[in-house]
Amino acid sequence: MVEALAIWRKALPPEHPSLATSLSNLASLYYIQRRYKEAEPLYVEALDIIRNALPLGHPDIATSLNNLAAVYRATGREQEAEQLLASLTEPHGS
Fold it and tell me: How many whole angstroms separate alpha carbon 75 and alpha carbon 15?
């Protein structure tokens, strides 16, 4: 999966939604393996791409927020997780 992500990074512009999918896939693997420190930055990057590429309210934004919130919860950061999920109704950057 790391190799696939490297290929996507070379082939696509940095804001392309397919890159976000690849980032999320690798982050999900790390999450399942409880490698939260490695999963978190990938989920953050994927969320940034998705928020900028898709309209507010798109289901992929909710999925990305939920994925990152799961990492926050798994690392004992419940308040951060709740704040992140509350942002579902706010425009990006608010």
Answer: 28
